[in-house]
Amino acid sequence: MKLPNVITFFRLVMIPVFLMPLAAVPPMYGLSLAVFIVAAATDLLDGLLARRTGTATRSGSILDPVADKLMILSAFVALTVLGDMPLWFTALAFTRDFLILAGWSFLRLAYGIKTVSPSPAGKANTFLQVVLVVILLGRLPLGGPAITLTALATATSGIDYLIRAVKSLRSRTG
Q: What's the chain's Rg over C-alpha atoms?
């Protein structure tokens, strides 16, 4: 297994390590924040390493976004359960990700479209989602505005992926 994939796998293993301090009574937000920041850093590191060393793999291109989504969505669920994030926001994020996955699966099965590259809107959304988790875990007083901004980015990037999927489909079907 190539080093970038090992780093990505490490990020997956960090998910329960991140969640355990939040399950403590009282929740240990600071410890979870530290683990989350390390996980976010591994996301930057694995991609950079794969590009710089020419060790990008197909499995890594699939595993990396899965690890990202599992980490972020796990954080959203935990923060919702703790009352730090509204349920509607977590539902929005899950719905967006489910629709993107379902749409990509349909395009792959029906039309043979094998890859969907991340859009700038999708990358901005992921960045804002990470920042939101850091704000909430850090107990910073910016939670409300950060949730609103990230919700707008989540919806916008979902619409962007839909538009891109329709364009891709139209180019395939003439």
A: 17
